[in-house]
Amino acid sequence: MQPTKNSVWFAKMKESVKHLSLNQEMNPLIKGSVLSTGFLGLQCSSESFEYIVTYIKSEYFEKVKNQLAHGATQQAINNGDLKGIKIVIPSDKVLNEFHEKSKEIYGLISQKKMENKELLKLKEFLLPLLMNGQVTVGE
User: Residue 9, SS3?
Assistant: First the structure.
């Protein structure tokens, strides 16, 4: 599955708490990623993105997801099961206010995640060079 901007993904397996929220700041990750069928995703409008992310990451959502999971070997939910999960739909005014107050925070979180990803790549490249003496750390 190809992720898209303003989409929220979660692991559909019971007791598996994995979330992926993809906004504008995550574009480099979006372009180079394909998700497994172990995830379900919701496409959000730009105004509803932060609200849906907050809801999907809630304990309530995980509890209900786990209750709806079914299957003999690996219990999970499917697209149809999502209809059994209730969500409060705020008025457009409240949704827009939530969006305006939280978009900068979620943008910063995503930006920091992308920076961490780049720093990990740099560490993986530099650490072997440091360990075998090809590079040194200066003051």
Answer: strand
Q: pTM for this structure?
A: 0.85
- Give strand ranges (E) for 3-133: 7-11, 19-22, 39-43
- 38: nearest Cα among 83, 72, 1, 5: 1
Tell me, what amino acid is at 68? L
DSSP assignment of 43-70 equals: E--TTTHHHHHHHHTSHHHHHHHHHH-B
**Separation of alpha carbons 92 and 110, rounded Å:** 25
Average pLDDT, the chain: 93
Q: State yes or no: pLDDT of 139 exceeds 70.
A: no
- H-run or E-run covering 106: helix 92-131
